[in-house]
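README: folding subset

This subset contains proteins for which both the sequence and a predicted structure token string are available. Records are stored as plain text. Below is the entry for 3-deoxy-D-manno-octulosonic acid transferase (455 residues), shown exactly as it appears on disk.
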Amino acid sequence: MFAFIYTLGIYLAQGIAKLVALFHAKTRLWVKGQEQTWTLIGDWRTENGERRTENGKRQPPITNHQSPIAIRKSAPTFWFHAASLGEFEQGRPVIEACRKQYPTAKIILTFFSPSGYENKKDYDQADVVCYLPADTPSNVARFLDLVKPDMALFIKYEFWPNYLSALKKRNIPSILFSAIFRPNQLFFKAYGSFYRNVLFCLDHILVQNQESERLLKSIDYKQVTLAGDTRLDRVVQISKQAKTFPLIEQFKSNTPLLIVGSAWPDDLEVIFSFLNNFNQPLKVIVAPHEINPEQIKSWQEKVTVKSLIYSQLFEQEERKTENGSFSQGALDSSSLLFLDTVGMLSSIYRYADFVFVGGGYRDGLHNTMEPAVFGMPIFFGQPYYQKFQEALDLLQLGGAQTVANADEFTKVFAEVYENEELRKHKADICRDYVQKNAGATEKVMAVVANKCVMR
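--- output ---
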């Protein structure tokens, strides 16, 4: 009965999405992407055994003189699913570990959200990147018949009952990794039997913390491993590959630098109020979560300090004459820099002395591990950080602090700013936390090796 109601709801949601798409751009991307999925998979299927090398580059099709048995054993098909871009980054170390350990494997990557697909549709470590077809029985059967996965890997969450049930019936191993569970979820309620049954379709779950492990065992789910969060492995990778940015270095110079990462307007109300009243030497870089030139201009009017925009500086630098028209004086006299480009934030954290991570006031806290790996005190808003284990851990350890408003931020920031020993202590806590808790990818890959049976 619940399965019927659930499936009916999916059909209704599809119809509503098509109507909403008429006037909502993001929904329109989702509807259009759903329509393209079958073409993308079909085109891939016509490539007749195309394979990739260890670094992800395409190779010619496997020739006929090779044994079909050898081909099957050396080329499993992995299906990875990520809800959105954040989950993709969390799962990326495992995807790339599969590519390295199984060089000729086929890797299918699906997304639910446009923010994931539109950013990673050209990801070169996957053979196919597409939207996940809606979770209806006909879509599920068609998708699995076409893809023929040897294993399905879900990142953090996304429990699609029809997909998981079909995987179980077809004896296709499915695992969930970097998962985190909370007592208020339906799985652990007396009336949550439908969702508990969905959970039991998974062959193995790798969780981030002991509480999640305890909750699963409380409902007699035994195939669980305490592995940690693969996102830590990803930020370690990023830190080792971090790029240098001369303009950022020039802007910072020898002045303490606060970076505000993935900031929403609620976060910036606090930051601007603080900045307008802070009288000590300080440079601030703001990386908005959503880049809107008109909004950045309005923000510039809200601050009393001189501000600059990164893309304009970069264009000016590119147009320099041989004698140099770029003014270091403009950088020296400015206290605020708006980072209006994509793809730089995770690398420029290396220059920070302090970081404020956005999302804590309204949307849900963004990635605290990207700055933590470089070692600096971290601040964020409240109350929307409770779902993030790393944030809870850093608060408990003392590497991070949460603030309710501008007055509170001014107080706690000044304390850390003025006490170099305290600043270093908090920085060491954050850096050590990442290093000590990295390694979840190896645990996931051990389960993959154990569960993966070529079909």
